[in-house]
Amino acid sequence: xxxxxxxxxxxxxxxxxxxxxxxxxxxxxxxxxxxxxxxxxxxxxxxxxxxxxxxxxxxxxxxxxxxxxxxxxxxxxxxxxxxxxxxxxxxxxxxxxxxxxxxxxxxxxxxxxxxxxxxxxxxxxxxxxxxxxxxxxxxxxxxxxxxxxxxxxxxxxxxxxxxxxxxxxxxxxxxxxxxxxxxxxxxxxxxxxxxxxxxxxxxxxxxxxxxxxxxxxxxxxxxxxxxxxxxxxxxxxxxxxxxxxxxxxxxxxxxxxxxxxxxxxxxxxxxxxxxxxxxxxxxxxxxxxxxxxxxxxxxxxxxxxxxxxxxxxxxxxxxxxxxxxxxxxxxxxxxxxxxxxxxxxxxxxxxxxxxxxxxxxxxxxxxxxxxxxxxxxxxxxxxxxxxxxxxxxxxxxxxxxxxxx
Length: 405
Ligand SMILES: Cc1ncc(COP(=O)(O)O)c(C=O)c1O
What we know:
three-stranded antiparallel β-sheet, seven-stranded mixed β-sheet
């Protein structure tokens, strides 16, 4: 007779997941906090500002109507899809059909992972930049697809980097026995804060259209730009509609990270695939949350401007402060991150050990670049989520640490 197995159960898909790099740093952070230290935490891209009051008020109002308490729609309520289409029209001059070219997701992270489930099969190849936001690769590896990387070369200028991206992409496609399924782009980028131009998107769309490779664009930081250059959408390129899907989110633009509302827009067939898979997996976000998100998109946009100003101010203080402290870092043109090369004298440590040192010696937490891919190991990501006073305190601590060595 078979005996009941008392060993802990293991599951292949979970075993296949790589170790979580951030866990090591999080452990040190938790220990420091337990020991009573006030860690200034730039680790996660988790907006600290409250959601604007008019959006919260709309949630309150909508949630007091019992009709909103039932299951919602997994594609999102029509008003919210229309509001997203209207946003694309006024911001990018891109006309979308809210019925067939727009879908609401439960945050863009859910959208990205559902997309991976919807469009890829084991053995398919997805091309992902390295470093990258983790779900860009893991969404696909979890469902059995293979990932090939485009390694970012940070010694190049942004323009050269765009060309290098296309060069590496072409090489991967030429060398592949079977045609890769899709390529992922993310500008403004998490973690690197890089931006790009419409000219780059035009070249990318041209190439991918010719080879029939899908493009997945993650535009999470579409409204967090600081130098008067609003980031473009890939859908501004005409032929993109044939092959591209683009994700946006309420999380960063309106400080609504906990609300879980995102969007995918673009090619009808890809949106249809996402719709189909989501109809099996979920019933959509809570209707009052979607109603409040609609009010956010259709309502006054001063709150977005205010948020941009806030992040810009923090960026300027942090970048100047770190440079003055002897840590040369560049000001990001967009996103909510400073992508900082580890100072020379600590470079040998790698990003995980350096991040741990920052916690123990400077009481400041950052995200180690390795967590975003091997190519990020000479960098750490500093999120602009601490207020000015705490940012300045962190700078003083870091200065002291750098001087001490
Ligand atoms: C590039 C990028 N995409 C997607 C997300 C996920 O956003 P959400 O799931 O909150 O919409 C994030 C969050 O940090 C991100 O940085």
